[in-house]
Here is the input.
Amino acid sequence: MKPSLQLTIGQSLTMTPQLQQAIRLLQLSTLELEQEIQEVLDSNLMLEKVDADTVNQDSESTAEAKQEKQDQAAAEPKQEANQEIPEELPIDAGWDDIYDGSTSYSAPAEDYSNLFENQAGESETLKEQLQWQLELSRFSDIDIIIATTIIDSISDDGYLSQTTEQIHEGLSQQYPDQDLEHEEIEAVLKQIQNYDPLGVAARNLQECLLIQLNALPVETKWLAETKKLLKNYLNLLGSRQFTTLMRRLKVSEEQLKEIIDLIQSLNPRPGSQISATTTQYVVPDVFVYKKNGRWIVELNHDALPKIRINSGYANLVKRGDTSSDNTCLKNHLQEAKWFLKSVQSRHETLFKVASSIVRKQVDFFDYGEEAMKPMILREIAEEVEMHESTISRITTQKYMHTPKGIFEFKYFFSSHVSTVSGDDFSATAIRARIKILVENEPPQKPLSDSKISQILKDEGINVARRTIAKYRESINIPPSNERRRLG
Here is the structure.
């Protein structure tokens, strides 16, 4: 067979670098996009960061000019809201004459910054606090070694992760000339257990709670009975055998309730009071609020740094000049324009999707979780005329600040559950209904999953018992046998 040349006509989708950049920016969270913008600022000389003071000065100096433009626009035919950024500057024209230099989110907006102050600060770890208290204690040199070893063996929740026998064996091998006794380890441990937070270095839950009880005043009501319960009947309390507990302690139901309240006032995880982790605050991408009876969606203009084209460098670009310096400036200018377009497109898409979600879930904003409607990505994609993959990217790690709290966009999407009437019910609404049923259940006879399933079925919602169990676990509600409590 002889080789030959053939001409074939076809169509294929090519991912241009600009399209790849736009898609990548869609899936970035606010913090990730901020890092991306900083990297671009460091690598592209055409882009510059604009301070808030500069933005305010620019807005004041150009207020009259903008008013004149608005007056002229009112007399002229309406143009496209999103003006295209020109590929090249006309000869003898400045960048500011063609493009105002700011992104769509750099215009002054209502100040929400005070709502989300992230005051970062270094916090002390549990071991550092215990070590500080050790330095204030009167210990011998060998006791300091023992105490330091014990502190190093304390876990983050405040419990001793090694037995005293293991600590004694390790120190005896490390310091054979000291002739350490096991009683010395126990004595130093008792001292550390009285450090702040009280109950730290306990070997188990029972010891932790008893240490805290022993620190209470002697006249504390039901103190003796509480100690007796913890020493002898903690397993009965864990299995919620209240009748047996009342018989063993010889107390009434009301008295047992007071004893349990005293136990619940103690801290089972003393180490949790001290955390070295810095609190991470969620920065919302959009704000949703009600105005004149309508729900309004507004982008968070303060979430990202303000960037624009550096007019000084942009004016250095000369048309027709093929020198290496001019070519470098042109490339940087083109990349800067592409990046600004991609960021602008991201925010336009974010606004469209957020507005569509609010329109479809308006009942949720008015009445709460129980009014949540079932919704899938395809419904939003069809409304905003985008692909489902685009909606999936733009709804991941994006947050909406509402009067009911801050929610991730993904929160508003849930599966459909059919009702007897043939209508669809949201899984989120079912979880909210389960939560309400559990909150109002009889304390001594909590509702089982089967009973909850039957109640929902009577309301016209067909949900299997296993589905109820899955929804219950997803909202951290324990099973019925663990929810039983005294009235």
Q: What stands out?
A: The chain has a mean pLDDT of 82. The longest helix spans residues 324-360. The beta strands are 47-50, 286-291, 294-299, 306-309, 399-402, 405-408, 416-418, 424-426. The first strand starts at residue 47 and ends at 50.
